[in-house]
Write a structure and sequence with these properties.
By secondary structure, this protein is of the alpha/beta class. It contains 14 helices and 19 strands. The strands form five sheets. The chain has a six-stranded mixed beta sheet. Helix 12 packs across helix 14. It is globular, with a radius of gyration of 24 Å.
Length: about 475
């Protein structure tokens, strides 16, 4: 299947004349301080194995205190059982308590990185050829540093927002099976997160191969992650006397049926918006198919043509389940007595884990293969609404900074801490103003990097967006 980066036509890309370097206001002293904040956060190791989110949170809190935030308004919350998993919470009080707060959420923990695997030290910020290289350069210390910087600037400017601005720099997003800061705060100190809506990671702009902006992404909802365990047994016996009752063969058949299964199309508002706004970027006949999906007039053939063009687009259109692990047998010269496997599902908002399990059971269609949940289901929230109160300021600021670049909502096929907030009734949107390259910029992999100008422009965008939200008086629709 053709990857996304190859199906953006050169003509459409060339029409988008703005550069990722487009906007930023001159602020040399402020930019130097932001770079220092970013470097300090990057160079504080926050991996689960060797790092400390607590130290990173304390260092960011110190910057807020130095800007004039009282200790009660910028504090580090450390769980007793996880002394290195500290979380920074802060607030800039609004003048009108009746208005719901806006929450700025970013995680400060990062994925593991081995020095021997990287070209550069992953825990030293390196600026090279127009890029910043480091673990967390994108995910998610770029937004975390930008949020801290924005709060410092608002305090220095004497800005008094109408609605309260809350900040949560949390730990455990990457390793939530061990600890998750958002879940912890929701359970122990929910007021630190209570808000009318939240800004989170998950949405970023897309660059073409030449580094020109193609689209500005806004994440509006996430698919639900769920693993299922499959198992079967058989009498076994000597391999020289084979029978038809073979555990591995039976499980392999069940896995093959799951792999061939296609869930029905389930179009949510974010996916409809994605295809409607993405259609002009692509050649015919793909453009017509995408426009039909966005406009609600697509037939089954159009859906399948679009789904077959790009695996990610298929994931935007339906629940997906695939086999990911299989093991079985106990000896090379024996018939297997057991076999086990894992099926990983990414479930569309509005569809339940129980519904997916029932479809898997029907598809497997073998009473000798058991299907169970590999872990209890996590949150199953609906997608947040695409209201004008949320999207309007994003579109206005993005249109000023990157004229002609379409703002495109999308559902995430992965997972962020936004799923916990959405489940708690806090609509959460992924928007950063930072643009990424077609290769993914090494996020979760080797040599993670972000363009320097992309980071600096994202800083400007988030400063303007949060300030605009905080000055507003309308409550976003739910």
């Amino acid at each position: 299947m053709t990857p996304y980066r190859l199906i953006v036509p050169a003509l459409a890309a060339s029409m988008l004349l703005s550069s990722v370097a487009a906007p930023a206001a001159s602020d040399d002293a402020g930019e130097r301080r932001f770079r220092e904040t970013y470097r300090e956060l990057i160079e504080t190791d926050t991996t689960l194995s060797n790092g400390s989110c607590t130290l990173a949170a304390e260092r960011m809190a110190a910057r807020l205190h130095a800007a004039g935030f009282a200790p009660a308004d910028a504090r580090v919350i450390v769980p007793d059982a996880f002394p290195k998993q500290g979380n920074l919470v802060a607030r800039l009080a609004g003048s009108e308590p009746r208005l719901p707060a806006v929450l700025l959420l970013a995680h400060i923990d990062v994925v593991e990185a081995r020095r021997a695997d990287w070209q550069r030290d992953p825990f030293k910020l390196v600026e090279e050829n127009g890029f910043f290289y480091a673990r967390g350069a994108v995910d998610d210390k770029a937004m975390a540093a930008a949020f801290v910087d924005a709060l410092v600037r608002y305090r220095e400017e004497g800005f008094r927002p109408r609605r309260t601005i809350k900040l949560a720099l949390t730990c455990g997003e990457e390793t939530d099976a061990t600890f998750n800061g958002v879940s912890y705060l929701l359970a122990r100190e929910p007021d630190t997160l209570r808000a009318g809506w939240a800004i989170n990671e998950g949405g970023r702009g897309q660059l073409d191969e030449a580094g020109k902006p193609v689209s500005f992404g806004v994440q509006t909802g996430e698919k639900i992650y769920q693993d299922f365990s499959l198992a079967t047994t058989a009498p076994g016996g000597h391999s020289a006397r084979p029978t038809d009752d073979n555990a591995i063969a039976r499980l392999a058949g069940a896995m093959a049926r799951v792999a061939a299964m296609r869930f029905p199309i389930m179009l949510v508002p974010a996916s409809r918006g994605f295809f409607a706004r993405s259609a002009p970027l692509h050649p015919q006949p793909l453009r017509a198919d995408m426009a039909a999906i966005g406009g609600g007039t697509a037939n089954a053939a159009a859906f399948e043509r679009v789904a077959g063009t790009n695996p990610l687009w298929n994931a935007f259109l339906r629940t997906t389940c695939i086999p990911t692990l299989i093991e079985g047998g106990h000896a090379e010269n024996a018939q297997p007595q057991s076999a086990r496997g894992n099926v990983n599902c990414r479930i569309m908002p509005g569809e339940t884990v129980d519904q997916v399990r029932a479809r898997l059971v029907r598809t497997i269609d073998d009473p000798k293969v058991t299907l169970t949940l590999a872990a209890p289901p996590g949150p199953q929230p609906p997608a947040p609404p695409l209201s004008p109160e949320i999207m309007g300021p994003i579109e206005q600021i993005a249109g000023t900074m990157w004229p002609g670049v379409p703002v495109i909502p999308a559902i995430s096929s992965g997972a962020t801490d936004g799923r916990f907030l959405n489940a708690a009734g806090i609509p959460t949107y992924g928007v950063s103003g930072m643009f990424g390259d077609p290769d993914g910029n090494g996020v979760h992999g080797l040599d993670e990097r972000i363009r320097v100008k992309s980071l600096l422009n994202g800083r400007v965008f988030l400063y303007r967006l949060v300030r605009g939200y905080a000055k507003g008086d309308r409550k976003p629709a739910r």
